[in-house]
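The records we work with from here on pair a chain with its fold. These numbers are not coordinates but entries in a learned vocabulary of local backbone shapes. To see the layout at work, look at the sequence and tokens printed below:
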Amino acid sequence: MSPRRHHILNLVLIGAALAGVTGCAASAEPPPQPTPTRTVISPLFASNEEALAAATAAYAAYLETSDLILSEGGAEPERIRLVASRTFADIEISGYDKVRAQGLHTIGTSGFDSVTMQQVDEKARDGVGIVVAYLCLDVSQTDVLYANGASAVSAARPDRIPFEVTFDRSSSANSLIVAKQTVWSRGGVC
């Protein structure tokens, strides 16, 4: 074998050996990739009764805060943000600002009863609209007064008003906040 051929053969053998080594490296199984873990969000409520109790507590907190703000003539309306969604709080704050601008305030306290579950949706996106309930707001023990003490309430105002109330999951705790309330006109609540 000529030296030139011998040199070429060596190069071919070295090349083949390198190809074999890199081939082995390439065909080796990659290290196992970690399996993505699924974040499991545990249900907020064990039962519909528990959801109803949470909705009742959330509405009571909302009503207490709202009554306080109104009794103080709309002062410090931002307090409603603790018990209401951002969107609903913005709407309520606008109303409190009007109360303050007109020099109004309330006396007495509101109440509610006849809370009935409409739906619970534990899979609601971002906890929005997780619970919807019907309730009857009782304003019979409240009055809205002008600064001079005269009542601003119409004699035609109903004492009991049916509402459909939507609740969102609170971002700060495993509880609910009021997201929306709409007068329910189809009857059967109050």
In short: The chain has three helices and six strands.
